[in-house]
Amino acid sequence: MAWPWSRQARDKPAGRNGRRARNEARTGGTRERRGLDLRFINRPRADRTVEGNEAIYAAVSRISNTIASMPVHLYKDYKIAESHPLERLISLRPHPNFTAFGWKQTMEVLRNTEGTCYALMVPDPLGQIRRLDILNPTRVQALRDESDDSIWYQVTMDDGSTRLLPGSQVICIKHMSANGIKGIRPIDVLRRSLDYDTQVKEMSLDQLDGINNGIMLTVPSVGLSQEQKEDAVDRFLETYQQSGKRVVILEGGMTATNFSGSQVDAQLLDVERITRNRVATVYNLPPHMLGDYTGTSYSTAEQQMMEFLQLTISPIVEQWEEELNSKLLTPEDYEAGYRFRFDITALTRTDVKTTAERNQMAIRGGWRTPNEVRQELYLPPDPLGNQLMSSRDLIPLRIAVETPEMLLGSQAAAAKRGDDDGSGAGNGDGTGGDSEGKEDETE
Length: 443
Fold this sequence. Notes:
By secondary structure, the protein is an alpha+beta fold. About 45% of the residues lie in helices and about 15% in strands. The strands form four sheets. A three-stranded antiparallel beta sheet has the order 2-1-11. Strands 4-3-8 form a three-stranded antiparallel beta sheet. It has a three-stranded antiparallel beta sheet with strand order 5-6-7, covered by helices on one side. Strand 6 (about 150-155) and strand 7 form a beta hairpin. Helix 4 packs antiparallel against helix 6 and helix 8 (about 190-210) packs antiparallel against helix 10. The radius of gyration is 37 Å and the shape is flat.
């Protein structure tokens, strides 16, 4: 990886601490720092651990695929800014080797294994960001400039040299952090649980390889030699084979007793469930997302999905949106109203009933047009679908008081207008005052 732009004096940390940071970037730091960095770089990547644990793989897969499946767009005035170059970059192809789905998925996999994921914003000669390069987290170390409290990232190249990147040029998405700079690795939190799970699996394999059933011979003689024991076993086996492994006649008071053992201890079967629960706890996942439905009380899949969205996905989406808005948008774009947002409604499209009810309420409630709903469902727009609709049985109380004729039918409304003008019958049925006269004649 080469430095994509020329470093200016203003891009370097200033002061005594800044000079120390630059010297450490060139020389690898002091002996203690070089030793620390070397161990940090040579540490195996956490995704290697994922390959050997089904529960962690399932948790990382759930979260990364969910984030990657949600479209992210650049909005202005509640509409997608299709003409903005950042919209095409983030929603179409952030990197020449990745689609938008693959790029977000890879970033999330690194975040959920290494604790932090990084993407370098590479600009073109005009300063416009043209791609987002994913960095190897094991080769990135965060540094804080004590002179102005700014964040810098020291990246180790393939040839062993280092580069110093300003924090404003690196997108950083992390897990929970104790210092606000680097996220805590979930694999480290689960280390003891993983070791325990590995030992239990090895014990289970030993049990499978061991003796789980057999026959115990009881011989009344006392003090048998090894040769006599082997002779008794051979005679029993010979008789057992000759009988077709069915009926055996034992002489001299010899008895045979079957014994058997479970291939796997029943208590060991609970270890997998315990491991899944611990992984779910660390990754903030509902246990049923990893296949443990013990104690699940939700009656519908929608309720389960809402729990997953509220507890797990919403905090991650919030961090993504804030990081993209603060790093990719210029101050002018932000003041103009540009914002990155994830379309979280994409996760509920599989529930047909919920989607239909939500769209119906949106159209009848007047907060979405029919064409906006059709666009979400990938349907062509309707020529008359760009207007906000309103249900007739729900109108402002002011209209019911000031213009009550709007609540009546067309004929009744016309008759009402005639009464107001004094040209029609007062009763609205064409009889007018004659009805009152007829009542007098009748009396």
